[in-house]
Amino acid sequence: MMLRVVTKERNLTTLTVPLKMRRLPRPRKLAAAFILISVAIIGVLSFGASPTFAATTAACSANATTGCLQGTVKLSTGEPAVGVKMTIVGADLDASVQTDAAGKWAQAISVAGAYKVGLDVSTLPAGETLDPTNENPATVQGKLGSNAGTVFKILGSGSATNSDGTMTTDAQTAAAGSVTWERFLQQAASGIRLGLLLALASIGLSLIYGTTGLSNFAHGEQVTLGGLLAYVFANLLGLNLVVASIITVLVCAATGYFQDALIWKPLRKRGIANTQLMIVTIGLSISLQYVFQFFIGAKTVRIDMANPVTVPIGPITLSEQSLWAMLISVVVIILVGLFLLRSRIGRATRAVSDNPSLAAASGIDVDRIIRLVWTLSAGLAGLAGIMLGLVLNGISWQTGMQLLLLMFAAVTLGGLGTAFGAFVGAMIIGMVVELTNLVLPGDFKYATALLILILVLLIRPQGIFGRRERIG
């Protein structure tokens, strides 16, 4: 006998599920196989880029007796800041260096410890200024045998900010009139990049909601965990970036598996309502944030200490890390789509997302499917954290929390519970957020995600790929 199940997605009208589904492969085996295939592709794609990531400034080479303090200073236009004076003070060192033609600076150290790295703002070109939110001088922990650095954000006259983060009237006027075709293309490319990385995390969030009905507010911390673990493995432990990424994805996937085994399945068995479960996710989110702060600190840390190499593509300039991150994201998203569409376990996952009771009646082990979804979602979130840490050149304890609103906006816009809707919603949110930066300063652009979320709920609450349902 065969059972016809109607799915949520418009482009999939019917789904035929065999009644004898008890022989489905174990979720733990499927999860392990899927993750291994994904990270293998990541390794292949990243292998060609790893020499670039591991490269260091020629002026300093870290070894057993020497450490390197280094960094790159770029103007507000993205061009390298040449001839900017940097001061380094600490231990037995009191030195100054200048940025080279690529905007890079480096200083060798022979004693591990805390160093004060300062940027002489008087050496910046006219019209350029240091972001007042930057600590100057910044404290950097230098270690022998490794590289360390800090990031200084340079603002132009059209994006100058006051100490409270607001723009001056003159700066607002300049910013409003500085929209050019080149700047539009640059922001559009940044929007595609943000959308792809956002989709990696949002697909998992949507799958969790689809199979369990739970809005997981701790999903952002899974993204943070991925970035921070990559920092620990690649930076502190000195592993190759590709190896560190593979280990990170596996560890993050394992956290999803054990989360469901130790927390969510027992609570489901007790009949706890989704509202109470959502409150648990909020508490878990806050707890994880404090754990991150306790072990890593409140500072922004870098996964890869090598200076980013930019690649000009016509009027668009992106770093090599950004290009590889976008390519890896596309490949992994395609793999997830094929998994959901072509595999038997993927079709069972969509059946559970549509109607868990009917899926269980057809012989599908709903608990195992949910366990697989938690494992897969955590692995994708961890991968998104790695990519974000490389693209943003740093990650902190609150990176995932800052992205959570964007993820919920993407999932709501695409349609709750639909993986393909989450992808489309993430791309739209990424583009809108980055293009908004053409007219709005700084982090004001993230407010557009909240505006989109409100409009979607008012106009089309089911989202793009969702369907109207009668409740009650």
Average of pLDDT: 80
> Per CATH, which architecture of the largest domain?
Orthogonal Bundle
Give the overall silhouette. Answer: globular
Helix fraction bin: 40-55%
Radius of gyration: 24 Å
Work out the strand percent. Answer: 5-15%
Low-confidence stretches: 1-25, 41-58, 158-177
Main β sheet profile: 4 strands, antiparallel
Q: Largest sheet, order of strands side by side? A: 5-4-7-9
The chain-level structural class is alpha+beta
Q: Report the end-to-end length measured between terminal Cα atoms.
A: 32 Å
What features would you highlight for this structure?
Immunoglobulin-like; 2 domains; ABC transporter involved in vitamin B12 uptake, BtuC; disordered N terminus; alpha+beta; 472 residues; four-stranded antiparallel sheet; 14 helices; three-stranded mixed sheet
Please characterize this protein's 3D structure.
By secondary structure, the protein is an alpha+beta fold. It folds into 2 domains: 18-47 and 185-459, ABC transporter involved in vitamin B12 uptake, BtuC (Orthogonal Bundle), CATH 1.10.3470; 67-176, Immunoglobulin-like, CATH 2.60.40. 53% of the residues lie in helices and 13% in strands. It is built from 14 helices and 13 strands. The chain has a 4-stranded antiparallel β-sheet with strand order 5-4-7-9, with no helix packed on it. Strands 6-3-10 form a 3-stranded mixed β-sheet, with no helix packed on it. A two-stranded antiparallel ribbon has the order 1-2. The radius of gyration is 24 Å and the shape is globular.
